[in-house]
Amino acid sequence: METLSTAIAFGGTQGVYRHASATTGTAMTFAVYTPPGDGPFPVLWYLSGLTCSHQNVMDKGEYRRMAAELGLMIVCPDTSPRGGDVMAHDDDWQLGCGAGFYLDATTPGYQHFQMYSYLTDELPALLGAYFADADLSRQGIFGHSMGGHGALTLALKNPERFKSCSAFAPIVHPSTADWSSKALRTYLGDDPAHWRAYDAISLIEDGHRFDAFLVDQGEADSFLHDGLRPWLFQDACESTGQDLTLRMQPGYDHSYFFISTFMDDHLHWHAQRLG
Ligand SMILES: N[C@@H](CCC(=O)N[C@@H](CS)C(=O)NCC(=O)O)C(=O)O
């Protein structure tokens, strides 16, 4: 593992790291904020949205002051493999680089897109090996938009690993939204039965459960009606007894101005559950 940069912030350390991933077959970059003080610290994973890298939330998420106060280690992976022969789709922001959808692709040409395995196996193991202060017995996960979809689906599929989950403006039902079903079809093939494992509502319909979710959603989000539709998630949770706190936030859009406003609330939500 290579350290690309480190800087002190609020007494902790914001680092950026790169390693050769055996899972994606590419170099992968990720960011880790280690709070001040003595570890071990609970590990909170932040998954970013379409077009993002590890960098966007580092620059605009405003998580460090509260993470330092609460003693949370924040890990921010990239959203897809990049470089070499990775299918980039530079003409389409919803596919390819920056649009890994946190799944394991099965279609020809997309062999590098293995973000689900990368986040469930390889990156946690790397973290355990290189960050002595990371307490992997206390992990939470949150994310934004496509990363909210990643957080909800990873939590629903791995309830024994994650003790807490929340999301900002998540894609809750990618199978039935035009802008995300295209990605599922491209990465997983034409049969929608294969998409269910990467769709939060389908997972709930199929019996997966998680302790409790917090979701914040801006009412002025331009993707609200076509892509996000949190009311569908609310219906699925209500009809199955899945615990959900959904907060509609008047006036807020899809941007990091929205995310940073509610970042402290989410960090408290996780800290309460991670101890
Ligand atoms: N590129 C898209 C917008 C993409 C977008 O809003 N991405 C969100 C995640 S879904 C994001 O976090 N963008 C990066 C940023 O705001 O820094 C467009 O032009 O409509």
Short description:
The protein has helices spanning about 55-60, 65-70, 115-130, 145-155, 180-190, 200-205, 225-230, 230-240, 255-275; strands at about 1-10, 10-20, 25-35, 40-45, 75, 135-145, 160-170, 215-220, 245-250.
What does this structure look like?
The mean pLDDT is 98. The longest helix has 19 residues, at 256-274. The chain has a nine-stranded mixed sheet with strand order 1-2-3-5-4-6-7-8-9, with helices on both faces. The chain has a single domain (2-274), classed as Alpha/Beta hydrolase fold, catalytic domain (Rossmann fold, 3-Layer(aba) Sandwich). With 275 residues, it is α/β, with parallel strands linked by helices. The protein is 34% helix and 24% strand. Strand 2 and strand 3 (27-34) form a beta hairpin. 48% of the residues are buried. The chain has helices at residues 55-60, 64-70, 115-130, 146-157, 178-188, 200-205, 224-228, 230-240, 256-274, and strands at residues 2-9, 12-20, 27-34, 41-47, 73-77, 134-144, 162-168, 213-218, 244-249. The chain is globular, with a radius of gyration of 17 Å. The protein has nine helices and nine strands. The structure holds glutathione. Glutathione is lined by residues 49-52, 56, 60, 93, 144-146, 254-256.
